[in-house]
User: Which sequence fits this backbone?
């Protein structure tokens, strides 16, 4: 056992050096279902703390007509957590591309529509910005797009996130509540906790998603709940003023993809696929 532990530690160290030196993206866990004659590829990206299973109630309606790809972001679900990763939007987007390229032939993909929720919307925007020729449309549900301006709600949210990052006990409480009520797969295990905390810091607090979305030349649909406590809806209108490809559709909901927000997402996808 001691010998195994020794070689295990050596392997982890070598992996860390190789990934850092050659900047090889990590593979994500991915679930793919393809109908015989599919008209589009739908890539579903979940938010912080949860997993690809959050999309089950939405994607089931499109299995007969589409190729469905659900991913577990790095550090969440069944995708491995790596202590040397920053868990930045760049890390997630590059790993998604690497996984799609390695596991599936991107050149065979028909129109690719990416559907993201919460932090997954930020990853979707990063991916679309980096690999413009691959993505035809974006559906962004409950996107936490922050500008770091003087908006009081945005200031409160970012300060609250920073407080969580500085308090392990508070982070533990949030993860426990998330597991009980919101389907969190994140736990207080060291790697899992670190993935959650790093994602909050590098992907959500330190983001430049507004500028990425402002320059994209594809249809972008922003859907959010008017009772969502985690978004800053005031940031959406200036974004639409800059990019007329953006459509904003509020609905009666909170943050999670349930009930009205799930129905809205299904309705949007059906409209897009009929075009």
Assistant:
């Amino acid at each position: 056992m001691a010998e195994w532990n020794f070689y295990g530690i050596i392997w982890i160290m070598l992996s860390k050096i190789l990934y850092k030196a050659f900047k090889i993206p990590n593979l994500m866990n991915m679930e793919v279902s393809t109908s015989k004659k599919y008209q589009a590829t739908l890539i579903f990206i979940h938010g912080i703390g949860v997993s690809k299973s959050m999309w089950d109630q939405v994607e089931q309606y499109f299995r007969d007509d589409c190729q469905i790809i659900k991913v577990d972001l790095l550090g969440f679900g069944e995708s491995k957590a790596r202590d040397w990763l920053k868990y930045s939007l760049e890390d997630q987007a590059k790993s998604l591309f690497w996984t799609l390229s390695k596991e599936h032939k991107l050149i065979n993909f028909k129109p690719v529509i990416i559907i993201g929720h919460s932090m997954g919307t930020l990853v979707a925007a990063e991916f679309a910005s980096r690999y413009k020729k691959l993505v035809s449309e974006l559906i962004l549900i409950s996107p936490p797009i922050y500008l770091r301006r003087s908006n009081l709600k945005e200031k409160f949210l970012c300060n609250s996130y920073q407080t969580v990052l500085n308090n392990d006990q508070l982070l533990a409480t949030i993860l426990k509540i998330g597991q009980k009520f919101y389907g969190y797969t994140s736990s207080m295990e060291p790697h899992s906790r670190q993935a959650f905390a790093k994602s909050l810091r590098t992907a959500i607090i330190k983001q430049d998603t507004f500028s990425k979305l402002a320059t994209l030349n594809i249809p972008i649909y922003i859907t959010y709940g008017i009772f969502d406590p985690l978004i800053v809806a005031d940031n959406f209108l200036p974004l639409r003023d800059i990019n007329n490809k953006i459509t904003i559709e509020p609905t009666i909901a909170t943050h999670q993809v349930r009930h009205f927000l799930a129905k809205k997402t299904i309705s949007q996808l059906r409209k897009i696929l009929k075009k």
In short: The radius of gyration is 19 Å. The beta strands are 29-34, 40-45, 66-72, 112-117, 137-141, 220-225, 246-251. The first strand starts at residue 29 and ends at 34. The chain has one domain: 2-274.
